[in-house]
Structure to design on (232 residues):
């Protein structure tokens, strides 16, 4: 066990039309965040977990931690107003002995322990990587409603989390972003913007991010299928 994991979980349920953090919504009888945490805990590679949260959710998150009775340290860290700000707060809270960090969205509740383990192996070799899968659709670049480009699909991958980095590199990239006012939707983009190479680790087709009620229904279906496979 070697790896530190940060879980941004300080969003809201706004895009889902929920009146609370979507990570507290039930999925097969457990809050979404609990599924994410259980997979991370089952990964032998992960030794320490920091969860970025809004203070209004501390009580509910703590109740989830108590349910799980985690065999490794889990810390609550105050989130920010954007995902980027939440991750920055998490990075500042890493223990001083942390040289490498994984970052994984709380909303990707179907990531498997095997994916975390493979990411830990990648972390030993790479300064920065993201889990990603090749895209299946043809992707169009659009201005208004007019297509302005059709990039070669062979070069397109859909970004997921976990993303992993040497801790000092990603901290410095976040600091530069703060100074220069960069706003991005994933952490790899910051390393890319400061000119550092980021590589790909094969992600999982089922590693979806719960954003809509359809995603929740698909997540439920996938989890039931996994249970059937275990029972067979
Ligand atoms: O909204 P979206 O699902 O894209 O957010 C990705 C992840 O970032 C979620 O797990 C969410 O809880 C987290 N987040 C955060 N702080 C924010 C906004 C989002 O930690 N201010």
């Amino acid at each position: 066990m070697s790896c530190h994991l940060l879980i941004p979980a300080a969003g809201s349920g706004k895009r889902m039309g929920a009146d609370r953090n979507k990570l507290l919504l039930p999925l097969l009888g457990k809050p979404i965040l609990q599924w994410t945490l259980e997979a991370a805990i089952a990964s032998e590679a992960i030794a320490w977990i920091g969860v970025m949260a809004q203070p209004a959710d501390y009580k509910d998150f703590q109740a989830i931690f108590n349910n799980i009775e985690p065999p490794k340290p889990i810390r609550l860290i105050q989130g920010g107003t954007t995902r980027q700000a939440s991750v920055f707060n998490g990075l500042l809270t890493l223990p001083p002995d942390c040289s490498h960090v994984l970052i994984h969205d709380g909303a990707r509740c179907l990531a498997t322990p095997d994916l975390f383990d493979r990411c830990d192996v990648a972390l030993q070799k790479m300064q920065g990587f993201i889990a990603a899968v090749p895209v299946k659709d043809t992707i169009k670049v659009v201005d208004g409603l007019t297509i302005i480009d059709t990039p070669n699909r062979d070069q397109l991958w859909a970004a997921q989390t976990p993303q992993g980095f040497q801790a000092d590199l990603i901290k410095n990239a976040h600091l530069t972003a703060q100074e220069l006012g960069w706003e991005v939707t994933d952490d790899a983009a910051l390393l890319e913007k400061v000119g550092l190479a980021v590589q790909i680790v094969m992600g999982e087709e089922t590693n979806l991010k719960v954003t809509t009620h359809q995603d929740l229904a698909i997540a439920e279906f996938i989890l039931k299928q996994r249970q059937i496979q275990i029972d067979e």
